[in-house]
Amino acid sequence: MRRQVAVVGGGIAGLTLAAALDPRRFAVTVHEAEPERAGAGFALGLWPAALRALSRIGAREAVAALGHRPPGAGLHTIAGRRLLPLGSPPLIMVQRPDLLAALRAAVPPEVRMSSGEVSDPAALDADLVIGADGVRSRVRPLVQPSAAERLPTPYVALRGLTTLPVRVREIGEYWGRGRLFGIVPAGPSGAYWFTSHRSALGPEPLDPEVVLAEARAVFATAAPIVRTVLDRAGPEVSATRIWTAPPMRRYVRGRYAVIGDAAHAMTPNLGRGACEAIIDAVTLAAAMERGTVATWQARRVPLTQGYRVASGALMRLALQDLRRQ
Ligand SMILES: Cc1cc2nc3c(=O)[nH]c(=O)nc-3n(C[C@H](O)[C@H](O)[C@H](O)COP(=O)(O)OP(=O)(O)OC[C@H]3O[C@@H](n4cnc5c(N)ncnc54)[C@H](O)[C@@H]3O)c2cc1C
């Protein structure tokens, strides 16, 4: 008899899980509130461990073919002085819509895709309910009631693509008091760039043009590449406050489990959120097949909660921000 699995959220974590579960043993339904969002988003850096995990669902080649390996990277002061050459990092930059398309192609035809928001996961008729529903997860409080609310950070992020030619020496991150900028080639569409700075703007949704205007003022004394990118950017940039998940002691309770940002949303500084979402999903699928979900939880909670804490610390270090949040 196949076990019924309801996956709440058809983003990176949810699609990877649906692709990884054996349809002969699990009857999977993926519930996605906003299927149209699959075409949106900017580049993500994927580290080797995530690419290895993708090979378990047969998606590694497709993602690697669509991705782009940066030819170099360095750490700079915000004024542009190169502090540390980092060589060519072993990560692949891939556009989020390309990654989601590759994951969707790996999902077996037996999986049912249901569009619509799940307002009450407890009402889902399934043996297992997996929350892959991001930082605002509705499944998370069913796993750990004290972790219902996502946590705001004082930082906003801007992301965009630029066709500006970027020299190898300019690739990488620029750190300075209250400001972080990064730029990395992301294939034929140009270079992917991002900023973070402390901001009181809100509530959401943030107006990208207002955040861009604030960023131009905050980065007014930054390196020429930073100022030129921001000057050329237009309203197509993406602006978000950075939210994190609260600390979690467990990812599984009864028939409920959480993976990806629902379990451990972190600041983007380690570039690991999507990577860990992919790894969560393939390792949970293997554990569900072997009946070792408790062991999965014991391994994944300390590791991913460690990344969540370390990523927040790296954000504060990069922005030299010693204030309490
Ligand atoms: C500025 C920035 C840069 C980043 N850079 C990187 C990077 O370089 N590398 C990296 O690895 N990570 C990066 N990340 C993190 C990465 O984007 C996330 O970790 C990743 O998207 C998490 O995937 P997920 O599937 O867990 O959650 P999400 O992507 O949030 O997907 C959740 C899905 O669930 C759906 N959903 C939510 N609630 C419901 C509901 N009630 N019913 C039905 N559907 C629902 C949503 O519509 C969504 O599609 C970055 C993040 C930011 C903010």
Share of helical residues: 25-40%
Strand content: 15-25%
- Compute the number of structural domains: 2
CATH class wording of the largest domain: Alpha Beta
Principal-axis shape:
globular
Category by helix and strand content: alpha/beta
The distinct bound ligands, ions and cofactors come out as: flavin-adenine dinucleotide
Query: Whole-Å distance between the termini?
Result: 50 Å
Question: How would you explain this protein's 3D organization?
Answer:
With 325 residues, the chain is an alpha/beta fold. The protein folds into two domains: 3-69 and 90-151 and 243-318, FAD/NAD(P)-binding domain (3-Layer(bba) Sandwich), CATH 3.50.50; 153-242, D-Amino Acid Oxidase, Chain A, domain 2, CATH 3.30.9. The protein contains ten helices and 15 strands. A seven-stranded mixed sheet has the order 5-4-10-11-12-9-13, covered by helices on one side. A six-stranded mixed sheet has the order 7-2-1-8-15-14. The longest helix has 26 residues, at 293-318. The N and C termini lie far apart (50 Å). The mean pLDDT is 96. The structure holds flavin-adenine dinucleotide.
